[in-house]
Design brief:
By secondary structure, the chain is mainly alpha-helical. It is built from 14 helices and five strands.
Amino acid sequence: MPKKRYVGLYWTRTDKFDKIDTKGIETVRRDNCAFVRSVIDTCLQKILVEREIEGAKYFDKQMISDLLQNKMDMSFLVISKQITRPIESYTNAQPHVELAKKIEQRTGVKPQMGERVFYVITERGKDARAYEKAEDQQYAMEQELSIDTNYYLSQQLKKPLLHLFTPVMGSGSVGELFSGAHTRVIRKPSQSTMSMKGTMGRFFSVGVTCLCCHAPIRTSVQKQGLKLGIISPSPQTSQKSQAVCDTCKLEGKEGYTLMDTLATARWCEQEFSMVLAQCQRCSSSLHRPFECSLRDCALYYYKTKVRKDLEDAYECLNRFGPPCQMREIYHLTNILLISSINTQCNYFKLKQCDICSRIVKLSIINQL
């Protein structure tokens, strides 16, 4: 490793080492994201303590694969830089300085000298510079912006891993960490219409897909028009009331999909309630609104993520049709019994709830 940057086992006794002593590397630097610090910490543990070189290599490849497939939580990719002088005195464009200017334009609040600016690197085009791709994480989550995983791999993770593994593997073999089967699968998250504003995506309509098999859903008018070749095959907004496609309906999968959606919504409600209660306790504000500005907290961005997931789950539930008494009872108790349906559902009297009719048929099939 370079000068003033080293790592080793710290010994004060002969039977056991005290700790892994690190100086100047990415695990102790605040301007690196938590993802890099976690990967380097685990590799040091495997190499120095467990003496498992192959285990460290396998772990690195798995983390790189998860990064390229967008399996990493965005809160682990937050980078922070300190504003060391007045913003006007910066001559070169830097990511945290340009983001500070954006924040001032959006909110009217200007980050002061000495404050740290937290940001993530998003995708802004092939030729975009790093300072153009820097964005506030909460804004990126709300707008559903895609993370530039190649930047984190090449600019954040690659150099520390080269410093760590070159003395162990040799300069000729260390390249296998960044090439191979684990780097060939790359997934990009789907973007909504809101996130595509200002791009070519605003000229296209967002299609509605089946919640079960993810196949495109088209109305009967569109199906007839496609046969005649007189209308566009792009779905319309009226399709959002349909949850599953006709094929999944015939196969009896609509009830299973509804219960999975209800379970997801309930889990999101529990997570959001837990995070909100923790934030209220930390701020000593149990009965009045509060605003948290502690961005170093692990729950700061997780709260925004859970709220978005809860809104998406409610949107999926609305596609099954208007809510009824049975859905509310099942949503609160998570109990699905024939007796409760017979006594508490209006389906047998008014025949107004399609959701309950599907649940009854599903329950009868399960008991046969």
